[in-house]
Amino acid sequence: MGRAAWTLLLLVPLLAEAQGASDGGVKLPSAPFQAWVKVQSAYVRLEPSLNAPEVGLVMRDDALEVTGCVPSCDAPSGWALLGEDGAIRLSNLTLTPPARATPPPGVEMPYVYGTVKKAGAAVRVEPRPNARVVEREQPPHVLAFHNEPELLDGGWLERPAGGYVSTSDVRIDRPSSLEGEHFPSLPLAFLIRDTQQVAASDAGVPDAGEPFTAHKYERFPVQGLDKAGRVLVPGGTLPRGNVRLVLPRERPAGVKPGERWVHVELSEQVLTAYEGDTPVLATLVSTGKPSTPTREGRFRVWYKVVHDTMHGPESNPYVVEEVPHTLFFHRGQALHGAFWHDSFGRAVTHGCVNLSVKDATWLFAWAPPALPQGFHAYWPEPARRPSLWVLVERRPVSRIDPDACKTCAPRSSPAQVLPPR
Questions:
Q1: What is the DSSP annotation of 66-93?
Q2: What is the pLDDT of residues 271-284, one digit of tens each?
Q3: Residue with more model confidence, 409 or 350
Q4: Between 26 and 128, where is the model more confident?
Q5: Which pLDDT score is estimated for 23?
Q6: What is the pLDDT, as a whole number, of residue 10?
Q7: How much of the chain, in percent, has pLDDT values that exceed 70?
Q8: Which residues contact 275 (CB under 8 A, 6 or more apart)?
Q9: Based on the number of CB atoms within 10 Å of its own CB, is 81 exposed (0-12), middle (13-18) or buried (19 or more)?
Q10: From CA 366, how far away is CA 368, in angstroms rounded?
């Protein structure tokens, strides 16, 4: 995804933050107490004032812990205080739990996703073929559905806003199996396609052995490049064209010791997450195509959202609903999960940095600041909280120093080929 400053559907609350009783006239208890959002969406403000900046967004059925009220919990125009995370109008809350719980942020796939087929998809009022059609979805939109296995087994999917779609009208999207290397020892090589045979080196490679089969997304310790440009690994060599390399990167200027930051290397299509000078994750990504490049530079995440709908421009009017675990770093360009392709290690996006769903889920939870309890989205800057640094650059690999990363965690068996993921 990408270009979302102009194409992202930010879930702007459709409410006026109006005056009124908090729960249809029901008296709220004294704080602290739990409440649920009863409107489609609502802003959380830095302070209990309509003039205070928005710092968060909550959605219908999100659960919040109310720690206090201003001026009181039974005031007609009162505010609910959410600890140190801000305040929300009491009129947006209810004491009645929702019938369906909101998926928590840590769920890798909170929804089932399906791409509308060429003939389109009818949204029906009930899950049966002759039920009344209430809406028609157009191809190639990607739709989100509640994760209900029994309904799915019966051939139907339920839309979050209501209505049912037959599974015959959509292609169910299955996420990639890719999961990055945690606490990697760098340099590291990822295969981006199956390599039927890894040739043993003629000379100069320790532990050279018989040719073996390697598979997409396997990863190997790197010992250098040979004269032919092949990647030297324990046991032989890998064809350079089948490999993406993760090399260590020194902490950039402005990033303090111990701060969390990520390095996106465009030439290799890889991402490395660091805590100070220590790499904690290395993985493959997909960045922008030449026609829609990912912006190079040093950025900070300005918007963090659990899942959101993205739209393309008029020239390419795609729609992908509820894109998971999204971290916006430059206007509409973001790090986020991608469940609709398995082309990691290749530049295929409209400008965003695509990660596998597993990697995006981990990165979202790890990236500062932590998402406050019950929040759907968060703006770190007005909340006065530091956010994740993102360094995007292109540094073509001309040589490899296998001893370059002195701070990397050692492998238990550095000379062994790692198993496929």
A1: E-EEES-TT-TT-EEE-TTS-EEEGGGE
A2: 999 999 999 999 99
A3: 350
A4: 128
A5: 53
A6: 45
A7: 86
A8: 258, 259, 260
A9: buried
A10: 6
Alpha carbons 34 and 11: distance in angstroms, whole number = 24
Residue tagged 């739209």 (tokens): 311
**What are the φ and ψ backbone dihedral angles of 320, each rounded to 5 degrees?**
-125, 115
Locate 60 and state its tokens. 């219908």
Of the candidates 210, 179, 265, the residue with the CA atom closest to the CA atom of residue 417: 210
CA distances from residue 142 to 30, 57, 199, 381 in whole angstroms, order as listed: 44, 23, 42, 31
Q: Do 408 and 279 contact (CB within 8 A), yes or no?
A: yes
As a whole number of angstroms, the distance between CA 56 and CA 63 comes to: 14
Q: How far apart are CA 267 and CA 245, in angstroms?
A: 9
Nearest-angstrom CA–CA distance, 171 and 157: 12
Q: How far apart are CA 167 and CA 87, in angstroms?
A: 42
Q: What is the pLDDT of residue 404?
A: 65
Quickly tell me which residue has 């999204």 as its tokens: 326
CA 78, CA 90: separation in Å to the nearest integer? 6
The chain-wide mean pLDDT, for the chain, equals 88
Two structure tokens written together for 141: 């939109």
Question: In whole angstroms, what is the distance from residue 200 CA to residue 282 CA?
Answer: 26
Q: Quick count: other Cβ atoms within 10 Å of Cβ 224? A: 15
Show contacts of 345-348: CB within 8 Å, 24+ apart: 345/190, 345/192, 345/244, 345/269, 345/270, 345/284, 345/285, 345/286, 346/192, 346/269, 346/286, 347/266, 347/269, 347/286, 347/287, 347/288, 347/289, 347/290, 348/286, 348/289
75 touches 131 (CB < 8 A): no
Amino acid making up residue 317: P
Question: d(Cα 136, Cα 143) in Å, to the nearest integer?
Answer: 12
Tokens read off for 93? 């809350």
Helix, strand, coil share of the chain (percent; to 5): 5, 35, 60
pTM score = 0.89
